[in-house]
């Protein structure tokens, strides 16, 4: 991404009226020519993943912010085509349709894109987006990446067709748009309440808009998309008074043309409701940029107004604060390494701090899965939990990078959702307080257990354990009734049964671990037994996890490479899922026969010839290395399993292969959906040199570092430093490891060792050290062999 940097700075200079925070300090001596300000290494982080299959967005968001203010390049996609535009923006697209307030970061499904706005200059104001292939056919505009800039908390672009300069920034609950209109042309905004991502016919159930006496524009929308009956309210406050407006209901052809001329204050007729609303907002000739401050609420319009008022100031103030917040958050882990790896690392770290996002109003109110309004007491409610993805590395990373309050907020949000859920269970894949029932498992359970076992306070552990047990025993969910009766999920009763069996077993193990730590021996015993249910679907004869029928027989025919939605496995096949026993890899290895057999099978997975297999029908299957699929989550721990088989140097080889082929600091730099930070969290951990294969074990498996030096400035005030002496492309192996100056002979770290601070030092080598961390006692945790 070095090439676009100078042009990005040019766009910044063109459209900004003040310098960003990093440009207000003197550059390091010799680091730039002629005093040119030096951007931080995370300057272009938001652009990484906006092309290819990353599904990230480039727009403005504060850390874990409620507003994700970003450009949308296409919202009118057909259902199958929406996958490519899940975040609204795709780097390859030539036009911008407008700027909307809500977006997912790297999801495998599209939705949101609420309350799209687009500036228009001149006498004619089109109220349809138009055809991207026909310039001038609507309000959308062409743009160039040479006049586009994205950095954490700030986005800038010039709309080529109109010449309007657009800037976006966002605070925790507000967003601010600033538009610079060409001189001599009237300024307008189009507010399109029809526009949405995953925008199939009939998605908008109802919407409304009105202008209040003080000029604040408010309204609402209820949609039927990925999440059913999702209600969202907005408040918009422009910096200039309206000189005119027009509302149109495109469904009923009902039009209200409001006042022309100066604002007359209260205008009872300045409102409209319907299912297909679009508004034209006129501001006349402006001699300064138009600022449009926005906020949303799941509760009501007054909540949106209160959120608007909760963060005072305009573009400058909000932008400066959010830039400072991002610089502090990302600067908490200073690193040294190759320029490409440093940029890749910070792009990944940035993307781990977008979700779960704040969703309660400034007064604590939030709308829950029961569609009722609740009040968060003592915590900030967060939503957007992609738990099937993020339990693996994203949430464990947040336990190291965020303070206790933030992690307690996450746990309290999960518990609060369970307590008002119509089904009494924890969220599965939740956004905006609504449940989508997407993916499998009850993976809020390991998130809560891992937080508790790592010492996070600020939530009620008894309420948490109760929520976890209720989720794990709710029979109607995902074949759990059969799972509890048979010890596995039968494929003739429930799709994706093989995957569900092993994922339930892992979740159950984390319940057992937390219950045991709390002294709840009966609960611990029940769920420890269930944690071994993975064995009931593991076929030792073939060496693969397989789906079984209610009568106990394995389903046939069996093809370990087959991937079909709704079949035996979830977004994968037997090759990936046969390794999913993070709580007891040693037990699974024993069934395979020996460490040598395990290594042979792992090699067979990575070296598999896929030339005769077509996976084009499976959207999430990306980033293939043989049958290892890094672009989707079930494979993410597999490279670390060589260490469980006594060959950590093979883990080191595979990690180099994965990092070099799956990540780069470019728009197409992610091989698959970032999935709310999971792909990025994998890279952050792996670059540091360790990874949480089994959240709930309080261990991190040591891999190999990809940075010369990194320092985690931990929330508790301690610092944990990682040093890689002699790191180079040739020196890809770990020669030896020391922890606080003493030799470390085992292949894992404990959580307590990291949070205590200290130094982990790797001495890198061109040849593998085949004696380090190979013995049984030196290997990471497995429940069947655990003595600790």
TrEMBL record:
Residues 1-23 form the signal peptide. It comes from Sphingomonas kyeonggiensis. The lineage of its organism: Bacteria, Pseudomonadati, Pseudomonadota, Alphaproteobacteria, Sphingomonadales. Transmembrane segments: none annotated. This is Putative alpha-1,2-mannosidase. Residues 304-765 form the Glycosyl hydrolase family domain. GO terms for biological process: carbohydrate metabolic process; glycoprotein catabolic process. It holds the Pfam family Glyco_hydro_92. InterPro entries: 6-hairpin_glycosidase_sf, GH-type_carb-bd, GH92_a_mannosidase_put, GH92_N, Glyco_hydro_92, PNGase. GO terms for molecular function: carbohydrate binding; peptide-N4-(N-acetyl-beta-glucosaminyl)asparagine amidase activity. GO terms for cellular component: cytosol. It comes from the Bacteria.
């Amino acid at each position: 991404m070095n090439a676009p940097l100078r042009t990005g700075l040019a766009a910044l200079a063109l459209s900004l009226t003040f310098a960003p925070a990093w440009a207000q300090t003197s550059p390091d001596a010799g680091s730039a020519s002629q005093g040119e300000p030096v951007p931080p290494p995370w300057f272009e982080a938001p652009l990484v993943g906006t092309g290819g299959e990353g599904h990230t967005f480039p727009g403005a968001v504060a850390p874990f912010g409620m507003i994700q203010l970003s450009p949308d390049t296409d919202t009118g996609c057909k259902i199958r085509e929406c996958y490519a535009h899940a975040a609204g923006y795709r780097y390859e697209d030539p036009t911008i349709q407008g700027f909307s307030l809500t977006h997912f970061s790297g999801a495998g499904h599209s939705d949101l894109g609420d309350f799209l706005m687009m500036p228009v200059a001149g006498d004619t104001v089109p109220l349809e987006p138009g055809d991207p292939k026909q310039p001038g056919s609507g309000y959308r505009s062409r743009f160039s990446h040479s006049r586009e800039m994205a950095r954490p908390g700030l986005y800038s672009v010039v709309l080529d067709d109109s010449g309007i300069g657009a800037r976006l920034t966002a605070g925790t609950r507000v967003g601010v748009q600033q538009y610079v209109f060409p001189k001599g042309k009237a300024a307008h905004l189009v507010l399109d309440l029809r526009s949405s991502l995953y925008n199939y016919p009939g998605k908008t159930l109802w919407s409304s808009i009105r202008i209040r006496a003080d000029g604040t524009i408010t309204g609402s929308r209820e949609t039927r998309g990925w999440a059913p009956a999702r209600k969202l309210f907005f408040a918009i406050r422009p910096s200039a008074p309206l000189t005119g407006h027009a509302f149109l209901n495109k469904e009923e052809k009902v039009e209200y043309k409001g006042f022309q001329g100066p604002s007359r204050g209260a205008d009872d007729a300045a409102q409209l409701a319907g299912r297909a609303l679009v508004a034209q907002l006129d501001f006349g000739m402006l001699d300064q940029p138009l600022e449009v401050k926005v906020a949303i609420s799941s509760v009501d319009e007054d909540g949106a107004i209160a959120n608007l008022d909760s963060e005072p100031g305009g573009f400058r103030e909000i932008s400066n604060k959010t830039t400072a917040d991002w610089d502090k958050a990302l600067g908490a882990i200073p690193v040294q390494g190759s320029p490409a790896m440093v940029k890749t690392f910070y792009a990944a770290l940035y993307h781990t701090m977008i979700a779960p996002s704040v969703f309660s109003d400034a007064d604590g109110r939030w709308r829950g899965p029961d569609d009722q309004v609740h009040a968060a007491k003592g915590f900030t409610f967060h939503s957007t939990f992609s738990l099937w993805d993020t339990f693996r590395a994203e949430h464990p990373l947040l336990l190291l990078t965020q303070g206790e309050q933030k992690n307690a907020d996450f746990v309290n949000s999960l518990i609060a959702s369970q307590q008002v859920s119509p089904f009494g269970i924890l969220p599965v894949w939740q956004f905006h307080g609504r449940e989508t029932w997407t993916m499998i498992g009850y993976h809020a359970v390991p998130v809560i257990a891992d937080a508790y076992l790592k010492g996070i306070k600020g939530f009620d552990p008894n309420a948490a354990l109760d929520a976890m047990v209720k989720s794990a025993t709710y029979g109607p969910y995902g074949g759990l009734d059969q799972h509890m009766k048979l010890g596995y999920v039968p494929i003739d009763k429930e799709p994706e049964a093989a995957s569900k069996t092993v994922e339930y077993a892992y979740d159950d193990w984390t319940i057992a671990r937390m219950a045991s730590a709390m002294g709840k021996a009966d609960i611990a015993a029940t769920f420890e037994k269930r944690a071994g249910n993975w064995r009931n679907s593991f076929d030792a004869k073939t060496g693969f996890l397989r789906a079984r029928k209610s009568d106990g027989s394995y389903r046939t025919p069996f093809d370990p490479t087959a991937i079909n939605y709704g079949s035996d496995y979830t977004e994968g096949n037997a090759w990936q899922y046969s390794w999913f026993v993070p709580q007891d890899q040693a037990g699974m290895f024993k069934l395979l026969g020996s460490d040598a057999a395990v290594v042979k099978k792992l090699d067979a997975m990575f070296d598999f010839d896929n030339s005769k297999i077509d996976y084009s029908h499976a959207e999430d299957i990306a980033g293939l290395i043989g049958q290892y699929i890094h672009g989707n989550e079930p494979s993410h721990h597999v490279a670390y399993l060589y260490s469980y088989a006594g060959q950590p140097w093979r883990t080191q080889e595979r990690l180099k292969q994965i990092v070099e082929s799956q990540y780069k600091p470019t728009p197409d730099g992610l091989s698959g959906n970032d999935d709310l930070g999971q792909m990025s969290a994998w890279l952050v951990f792996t670059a540091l040199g360790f990874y949480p294969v089994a959240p709930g074990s309080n261990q991190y498996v040591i891999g190999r570092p990809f940075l010369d030096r990194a320092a985690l400035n931990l929330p508790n005030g301690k610092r944990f430093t990682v040093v890689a002496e002699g790191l180079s492309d040739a020196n890809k192996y770990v020669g030896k490891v020391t922890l606080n100056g003493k030799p470390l002979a085992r292949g894992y770290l404990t959580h307590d060792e990291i949070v205590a601070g200290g130094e982990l030092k790797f001495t890198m080598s061109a040849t593998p050290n085949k004696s380090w961390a190979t013995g049984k006692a030196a290997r990471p945790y497995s429940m069947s062999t655990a003595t600790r």
